[in-house]
Design brief:
Number of helices: 5
Number of strands: 2
Largest sheet: 2 strands, parallel
Shape: globular
Helix content: 55-70%
Strand order of the largest sheet: 1-2
Distance between the termini: 54 Å
Order of helices and strands: HHEHHEH
Structural class: mainly alpha
Amino acid sequence: SPSMADCIRRAIKPLLVGLDQSTLEVVVGILEISGEGSAVDEADREDLIELLLSAHYCSDEEGASALCDQLIDAVGLRNIGGEREPRASAALASTAFDHWG
């Protein structure tokens, strides 16, 4: 049976036409690791966005961010990083910053 990496590659390849193979494999790797927890967290999402920008596949962060969410959806993972409602940890972090401001 196909490995998880194979399934991911099949799911995201149509969204990444023209992306070089080595970058594609890194994307697959990040999503595969995320898949073990069945969700993509903020850090992994940032890594994916950074990757799409550094490969010059996306010209701006907004485009990379949108594509990243499409990739996560295509693989069927929960997109923690892309969820709009603020999470407690984020709220706590911003309060902490206020104190040090």
